[in-house]
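Record 1 of the preview.
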Amino acid sequence: MKPPSSERERLVALLAALEDPPRAAELASDDSVLVAVARHHRLSPLLSATCGATLPAPLAEIFRRDRLVTAARNMILGQVAEECLRALATAGIRTIVLKGLDYETRLYRMAGVRPTADVDLLVPNEKRREAFAVLDRLGFEPRAAAPGFDDPDYHEVAWTRRSVEVDLHMALAPLARCRIDYTAVWAEAETFGLGQTKALDLVRHHGAVFHALHMAIDHFDVPAIYLVDLTRLLPTAHAVLRAETTARLWRCLRPLTTAVALAAAFLPRWTRGLAYTSPGPPAAAVRVLAGYGTTSALPRPEQLVRKVMHFDSLVDTIRYLAVQSRRIAMDRIERRVRGRSARQRLGL
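->
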């Protein structure tokens, strides 16, 4: 078998091993680029758990260590998340756990296989001030992570304490970007156990739409573990169709269409197993597919093109760009002219 010659080919080989573990034996044991690709795409811990028995010994050991590191990191993040959940509950604030910690617990059900960098929590928008006060009491400091983070309608604020970051979401995406039904989000949220703490997570079809939106917000320049996540969020053809219906209602179908096209292209057994045939990918998805699979940073011009291509309507695009332009201008004033700290900007 001819060894892969590019980062994209190596990624295809790694994902093929996840879909068919015996194929892990074909991976080159001395390929440092393969290891770098596996780590960049956050796949090495899952490969250790899924293909440990068939991986070449050197790779098996490297990926086993990555899984141990991930398990230790996720344990710390999980403890912080539980602390925040309990404090928010005491303050009467309902909270939904998003992304990494939720995925490992609900979608993978194996410790240390789903790397995550931070704790993502969603609280009702009308509770933002109370939630800020809770994190402040817990010793977290707000961080000016993006222009407009201090606006009363901004969708998330990053908080840090020592080496841990909590992203507190008041919405799943910028409010000007689409039309998410938050009444349905909170009404249909499901209960699960995070460690010893009772928590909420998004119902599957809501979670899949949010996942795709998050990929689009990051211009689809995301690690391939996101593709695996999506296949687990949408395990049946019915689930895919229900997510598509929701995304259409929320005016964010284009992100989901591209996300599904990416997963289908790199994890073909998923769609074959669903007996689901997606329509031909639109131009936005074709563009993303053509450039996916490297570890290189996406150039800023391409980021902007992808962002604009993934709005469902021209009206939403114009509204979002206008809001963001205003936020960028105001952020420069706050930083350079007024020099106010993140705490001052949040009124703490």
